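Postdoc handover notes: sequence design on the structure in folder B. Input tokens:
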């Protein structure tokens, strides 16, 4: 029953996202919502986040705010279920006490890269390669994975050094 309501909620959110400018961040406010089930958040939030990660909405992102502890637990259960049953990682951005964080599992290198972007505000593959003493292609792959998960936004810059992408946290 609640999966169908989650599908309706996702459709409403998708309409708003589709009509917004590229690079927009949508804050999904759960204030006052104290009860959801795993199927609702799986459909409404993780289903949408998966579509965002697949590039269906360009550079638009979602951030969850004001999650009640019970809703957060159900979201974490849905994330865990997708990982275990379908071998899918669908991490989501969560704003808590004015700090953005990731709900869901990330490889340590991706989590470290996410935190580095958070600390620096923007990060290029070249910056990451220098900071972590890794090859530029490894740095590019880490940033691309975060982008493909829908956790960062990307801006293309063309300057005298050539073309590069700058990554930032969507807040």
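Designed sequence:
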């Amino acid at each position: 029953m609640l999966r169908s309501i989650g599908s309706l909620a996702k459709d409403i959110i998708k309409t708003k996202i589709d009509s917004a400018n590229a690079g927009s961040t949508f804050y999904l406010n759960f204030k006052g919502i104290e009860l959801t089930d795993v199927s609702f958040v799986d459909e409404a939030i993780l289903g949408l986040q998966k579509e965002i990660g697949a590039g269906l909405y360009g550079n638009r992102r979602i951030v969850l705010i004001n999650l009640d502890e019970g809703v957060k637990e159900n979201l974490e259960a849905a994330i865990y279920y997708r990982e275990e049953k379908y071998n899918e990682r669908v991490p989501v951005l969560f704003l808590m006490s004015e700090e953005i964080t990731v709900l869901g599992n990330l490889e340590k290198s991706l989590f470290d890269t996410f935190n580095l972007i958070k600390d620096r505000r923007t990060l290029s593959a070249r910056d990451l390669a220098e900071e972590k003493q890794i090859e530029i292609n490894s740095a590019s792959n880490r940033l691309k994975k975060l982008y493909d998960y829908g956790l960062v936004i990307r801006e293309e810059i063309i300057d005298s050094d050539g073309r590069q992408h700058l990554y930032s946290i969507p807040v």
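Context for whoever picks this up: The chain has two domains: 1-105, 106-171. Don't rerun without checking with the PI first.
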